[in-house]
Design a protein that fits this description.
alpha/beta, globular, 8 helices, 28% helix
Length: 257
C-alpha cells in the first residue's frame, strides 16, 4: 500500500508549456490526500525558489537534489558542498575558463554572469533572473549546489577540479553540481525516516536524469512520457507526459486513487 509519493517539479508536476500544474494532476493530488497519502516535492530547485506550485500543500520538500530537506519550518537535513571545491571553482573561473555559474545558498542564488543560453533556460523554467555577484564573494558561505552552464563535452575537465562533487543533468546546456552522494534518493530516506514510512510504501515521479536515483530507489518509480530514454529505462513504469494527464493515469494504473 502506497503511503508516500514524491514528485519532481519541472516537467513532472508542472508543465514546461503552461508553467502550471495540470488540472488532472490537481485532481490526483486531492484524491491521494483524501486517502491519507503523504505528498512530497523532490526538486533540483532551491526551497525558496519554488514558485510554481500555487496553493498546493505538501508534507515536505526535498530540494537541491537531496541536499536540503524541509518539513514545515524545520530543515531536517542539509549537505553543503565542500568549501575546498568552491575555492577550486573560483580558481578555475578566474585562471582557466569562465562559464556562467550560479551559487545556490540556503536563501539566495548568485550568478557570476549570464548569457543567452542562461536566459533561454531560465525562460523555459519561468525562473526569474538572479542577482549577479562574483563567485569569490561567496567564499566562506555554505553553498549547496551549482547551476553550472557547461556542456557534456566540458564536463570531465571541469568536474576534475571538484573532487567532492558530482554533476547531474536533465538538459544538455547545464548541470546541477551537487555534493558527492547527495541525491533525491537520499532525500527520500530522510523523509521516510522522519515520518516513519517504509521504503516499500513509496512511489516517485520524475522526468530528468537527476530523478533517476529516486526512481530506482522508491518502491515504485514512474517516468513521465516526456522523459528521455535513459530515464524511461530506469523506471518501473512509464506514463504519459505531464501535459497528457501522466500523473493521474499512473496513479489510476496502480490503484492508488
Amino acid at each position: 500500500m502506497i503511503k508516500a509519493i514524491f514528485f519532481d517539479v519541472d516537467g513532472t508536476l508542472v508543465s514546461f508549456k503552461s508553467h502550471r500544474i495540470p488540472d488532472s494532476t490537481l485532481e490526483a493530488l486531492d484524491l491521494a490526500r483524501k486517502k491519507g497519502i503523504r505528498l512530497f516535492v523532490a526538486t533540483g530547485r532551491q526551497y525558496y525558489a519554488i514558485d510554481n506550485l500555487g496553493d498546493q500543500a505538501f508534507d515536505g520538500f526535498i530540494t537541491l537534489n537531496g541536499g536540503y530537506c524541509v518539513v514545515g519550518d524545520e530543515v531536517i537535513y542539509r549537505h553543503p558542498i565542500d568549501p575546498a571545491d568552491i575555492e577550486a571553482l573560483v580558481h578555475y573561473q578566474e585562471e582557466i575558463e569562465p562559464f556562467p555559474c550560479g551559487l545556490v545558498l540556503d536563501r539566495a542564488i548568485y550568478m557570476n554572469y549570464t548569457n543567452e543560453t542562461v536566459k533561454e533556460l531560465f525562460g523555459m523554467l519561468n525562473f526569474p533572473d538572479q542577482p549577479a555577484r562574483p563567485l569569490r564573494a561567496s567564499l566562506g558561505q555554505a553553498v549547496y549546489q551549482l547551476i553550472a552552464f557547461f556542456t557534456e563535452g566540458q564536463e570531465a575537465q571541469i568536474m576534475s577540479v571538484l573532487p567532492h562533487c558530482e554533476a547531474t543533468r536533465w538538459n544538455p546546456v547545464f548541470a546541477d553540481v551537487v555534493p558527492r552522494g547527495s541525491t533525491k534518493a537520499v532525500g527520500i530516506d530522510q523523509m521516510i525516516k522522519h515520518f516513519g514510512i517504509p521504503l516499500t510504501a513509496t512511489m516517485a515521479f520524475g522526468d530528468g536524469g537527476n530523478d533517476l536515483p529516486m526512481l530506482r530507489h522508491a518502491g515504485i518509480g514512474v517516468a513521465m512520457g516526456n522523459s528521455d530514454k535513459t530515464v524511461r529505462e530506469g523506471a518501473d513504469y512509464v506514463t504519459s507526459s505531464v501535459d497528457e494527464d501522466g500523473i493521474f493515469l499512473a496513479l489510476k494504473h496502480y490503484g492508488v486513487i
